From TrEMBL, chain A:
Its cofactor is FMN; heme b. Heterodimer of a catalytic subunit (MsrP) and a heme-binding subunit (MsrQ). Its main location: membrane. This is Protein-methionine-sulfoxide reductase heme-binding subunit MsrQ. Binds 1 FMN per subunit. Binds 1 heme b (iron(II)-protoporphyrin IX) group per subunit. It is found in: Cell membrane; Membrane. InterPro entries: Fe3_Rdtase_TM_dom, MsrQ-like. Pfam families: Ferric_reduct. One of its GO terms (cellular component) is plasma membrane. The keyword Calcium does not apply. Keywords: Cell membrane, Electron transport, Flavoprotein, FMN, Heme, Iron, Membrane, Metal-binding, Transmembrane, Transmembrane helix, Transport. The chain crosses the membrane at residues 47-72, 84-101, 121-143, 155-174, 180-198. It comes from Melaminivora suipulveris. The lineage of its organism: Bacteria, Pseudomonadati, Pseudomonadota, Betaproteobacteria, Burkholderiales.
From TrEMBL, chain B:
Residues 110-265 form the Oxidoreductase molybdopterin-binding domain. The keyword Signal applies. This is Protein-methionine-sulfoxide reductase catalytic subunit MsrP. InterPro entries: MsrP, OxRdtase_Mopterin-bd_dom, OxRdtase_Mopterin-bd_sf, TAT_signal. HAMAP family: MsrP. Mo-molybdopterin binds at residues 90, 93-94, 148, 183, 231, 236, 247-249.
Length: 209, 331
């Protein structure tokens, strides 16, 4: 008797991972093209910094959606993509930080230090980045072995702290305009993704299969 | 009183902004050639050299002819921001909070018929029709720096006349110490007015002596044409030494009052937006350092930000209005 094909088996095909990798780079390619073609509006530096921040948040949502989606849709092969998506979240956060440091602060370390001290939302952004940096730095197989599976997992649950910190950073930035519509959208999505981790929600998700 | 250098108001152009001699000479040569062609062209060529163009007229909206202003400090010699940038990147929350929103959404604004009511503590309160206002005093061209509290700046050629011209005609009473500006809040044509971002209508205010200062401009146009909707058509205020949000757009009412009026941003976030809001590199906003600014359209993505000047560089003209005031307290 032939085994029923695994759901989402195409995710295991040799071309699938490079394809997802290329898709993850598409926003960056689009921004680089926009900058080169002078299509980022009157203030391209601001447009770049903001867009890279937006993409960091989006990749955070995508990364956190992997597990609930895997459980709810029975897409076991999705697990193979979690680390790559998490690293792309870090990648866009790094570009966001570099764009801020380069375009806004002229790569002046003293200027950045002053800015961090003066503006709490920048400090929160830096903390969020520091957390992502720790997770990225320990994302390799060797790090898992070195830390031990259990400790490694506990450390990587730190991603649950990244979500509220990133939201606080975004909220604080938008507080100047009293304009929280977009912040609320991300808060709803990230909130739902975090709630899905709670044991009762996990059971419901699993039950649906 | 401390002695301050008085050259801040006349910031000299940076070397990069001065037209290179070779380019300048070749333009002259071209004009001379043209002038050689015909007697009439010779005359045109002469007047063309006398005044190199400060910007290219956009040719989008009806022209608003004006004369060069003789008011001290009214003509900065800095490079004028591109019309495209000045009209596509601005804040006008009645049309949305994104800086691209006003240009996208303001087409619905109806600027005729339009009246501005002038009331309160004046001997001659009355309503002015916009066409009457346009002719009230000679229109002047003024090239002002504009500094937004968000840390960006532009250089814009405005067309209008000193607000003082209007104020004199309505004869403020002795008890009038402040002027309040009320702007249009029309839910039907302004999609942002439905939001709770601000308390509508948008209101702003100036002390009477600030409003009477010759640099305070009642503005009807920019780049030689009438104001585009997104920049506050048909009539707005421009106060060049204060952050941009002090300059109320699409005015419908001017009231003379005794006490400091509440302003839209002060009501929304008291600790962030003071009544005065003078441009000041030493008083940081909680979200934006005010020490430097990005000049829109300048030298591309990797241009260094420039230092912000006290009173946006208009200290020589307006510094005396704030003598003895603690600008950290009255921010």
């Amino acid at each position: 008797m032939a085994r029923a094909p695994q759901r989402g088996a195409w995710l295991l095909r040799p071309w699938a991972k490079p394809l997802v990798f290329a898709l993850c780079l598409a926003p960056l390619a689009w921004l680089v093209f926009g900058a080169a073609a002078d299509r980022l509006g009157a203030n391209p530096a601001e447009a770049l910094i903001r867009a890279l921040g937006d993409w960091t948040l989006r990749f955070l949502c995508i990364t956190l959606a992997v597990t609930p989606l895997r459980l709810a849709a029975g897409l076991a092969p999705l697990a193979r993509y979690r680390r790559m998506l998490g690293l792309f979240t870090f990648f866009y956060a790094l570009l966001h930080l570099l764009a801020y440091a380069g375009f806004d602060m002229g790569l002046d370390a003293q200027e950045i230090a002053r800015d961090v001290a003066k503006r709490p939302f920048i400090l929160v952004g830096m903390l969020t980045f520091a957390l992502l940096l720790i997770l990225a730095a320990t994302s390799f197989n060797a790090a898992v072995r070195w830390l031990g599976g259990r400790r490694w997992q506990r450390l990587h649950r730190g991603v649950y702290a990244v979500a509220p910190l990133a939201l606080l950073h975004f909220w604080w930035m938008r507080a100047g305009k009293n304009d929280f519509a977009e912040v609320l959208v991300y808060a709803a999505i990230l909130g739902a993704l975090l709630l899905s981790r709670l044991p009762p929600m996990r059971r419901i998700l699993l039950h649906k299969q | 009183m401390p002695i301050r250098p008085h050259d801040n108001g006349f910031t000299h152009p940076r070397a990069s902004e001065i037209t290179p001699r070779a380019v300048y000479a070749s333009r002259r040569a071209l004009l001379q050639q043209l002038a050689g062609g015909a007697a009439l062209a010779g005359w045109a060529g002469r007047s063309a050299w006398a005044q190199t163009p400060l910007y290219v007229p956009p040719g989008r909206l009806p022209a608003l002819p004006s004369q060069r202003s003789a008011v001290a400090g009214a003509m900065t010699m800095e490079k004028v921001t591109d019309y495209k940038d000045a009209t596509s990147y601005n804040n006008f929350y009645e049309f949305g909070t994104d800086k691209g929103d006003p240009a996208k959404n303001a087409a619905t604004l109806k600027t005729r018929p339009w009246t501005v009511a002038v009331e309160g503590l004046v001997n001659r309160p009355r309503s002015f029709d916009i066409d009457e206002l346009l002719k009230l005093a000679p229109q002047e061209e003024r090239i002002y720096r504009l500094r937004c509290v968000e840390g960006w700046s532009m250089v814009i050629p405005w067309v209008g006349y000193s607000l003082a011209e209007l104020i004199r005609r309505v004869e403020p009473q002795g008890s009038a110490r402040y002027v309040e500006f009320v702007t249009l809040a029309d839910k039907a044509t302004m999609p942002g007015v439905g939001s709770r971002v601000l308390d509508w209508p948008y209101t702003e205010g100036l002390r009477l002596d600030e409003a009477m200062h010759p640099l305070t401009l009642l503005t009807f146009g920019m780049y030689g044409e009438v104001l585009p909707h997104q920049n506050g058509a048909p009539v707005r205020i421009v106060v060049p030494w204060k952050y941009g949000f002090k300059s109320a757009k699409s005015l419908v009412k001017i009231r003379f009052v005794e006490h400091e009026p509440g302003t839209a941003w002060n009501k929304a976030a008291k600790n962030e937006y003071g009544f005065y809001s003078n441009v000041n590199p030493d008083v940081a906003h909680p979200r934006w350092s005010q020490a430097t600014e990005r000049r829109i359209g300048e030298d591309g993505l990797f241009a260094k930000k420039r230092k912000t000047l006290l009173f946006n560089g208009y200290e020589a003209q307006v510094g005396q209005l704030y003598g003895g005031m603690d600008l950290k307290k009255f921010y």
